[in-house]
Amino acid sequence: MANQKKVAIIGAGVMGEALIAALVLAGVAPAMIAIVEKRRERVAELTARYGVNSQPLDEAVSTNDVILLVVKPQDLQALLQEIAPTINKSALLLSFAAGKRIDFIAGHLGTGNPIVRIMPNTPALIGLGAAGYSCGAGVSAEERNFVSSLLSAAGKAIEIDESLQSAVTATSGSGPAYFFAFVEAMIDGAVALGLSRDDATTLTIQTITGSAALLERSGDSPTTLREKVTSPNGTTAAALASFSESHLAEIVSRAMKAAHDRADELA
Prior knowledge:
CATH superfamily of the largest domain: NAD(P)-binding Rossmann-like Domain
Strand content: 5-15%
Structural class: alpha/beta
Number of domains: 2
Helix content: 55-70%
CATH class of the largest domain: Alpha Beta
Order of helices and strands: EHEHEHEHEHEEHEHHHHHH
């Protein structure tokens, strides 16, 4: 990544901080990174932790080469209208606002800036994120490489057609919450069987993390690994039969479709 680019991050919440860390890992000097954040205590925390700068909004959008919009979808339109008069018209704009299309951003900005739409997820906080990104017209090969390097520093990233952004949202964007809900259910199930909550939590989390690592490192498919641990008429087979009787695959599919449709509604 070209480390001479000056980068502004508008919105320094949880994901904003993850992106600061990713930028630094990708080779951007902290002195070249500016944050725009209303909460003074948060500004003090992040500038001390990472050595980045703080700038007012108008200065950030007019003087930086790359602008990351890390705001809630409902706040994006007002922000675009506010920054349109002063934005550096050659700046690369990266939007992390869920559901908001490139043409929505371009239409409300009206400045012709190159735009990339990105759907990240929260494991980016520990460098294990999964992101899908879509490039608008006018995004150069160099800018594509910048985005790829940034997102790869926070995990894994794929470039997709924008029409698939809602599918990415339903898969990796919302996916961590599905996982956490399953872990909660496993812990509650173990407690119901007599384990203490502490012991249930320890065993469940270790089982989940160990299984994920095995899946990543073994080279086997999820189907193969499931089959290896399932003896005919054994305990695992009984549990999986219960899942099947409860239509687990259909439950997951419906949940992902609901997330997908809601992402479309937000566009």
